[in-house]
């Protein structure tokens, strides 16, 4: 799964690590551990993940929405 974050960094996460919301959340929190200001908000779960068309993907819809 390809991810571009709020500070412009790009990540490519292996499918088997992010095909569940819990797995994706873990990767995102790791990516923001040492990011000033916004990192604390991410650690508290204050973020949205969006699809390629800009639509917000809700946690409960993650597994049925994303594809490798």
TrEMBL record:
Pfam families: ULD_2
UniProt domain Ubiquitin-like: residue ranges: 1-68
Domain of life: Eukaryota
The protein's name in its UniProt record: Ubiquitin-like domain-containing protein
Organism this protein belongs to: Teratosphaeria nubilosa
């Amino acid at each position: 799964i390809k991810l571009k974050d709020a500070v412009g960094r790009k990540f490519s996460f292996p499918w088997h690590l992010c095909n569940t919301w819990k797995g994706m959340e873990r990767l995102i929190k790791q990516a923001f551990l040492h990011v000033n200001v916004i990192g604390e908000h991410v650690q508290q779960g204050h973020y949205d993940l969006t699809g390629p068309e800009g639509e917000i993907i809700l946690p409960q819809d993650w597994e049925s929405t994303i594809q490798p």
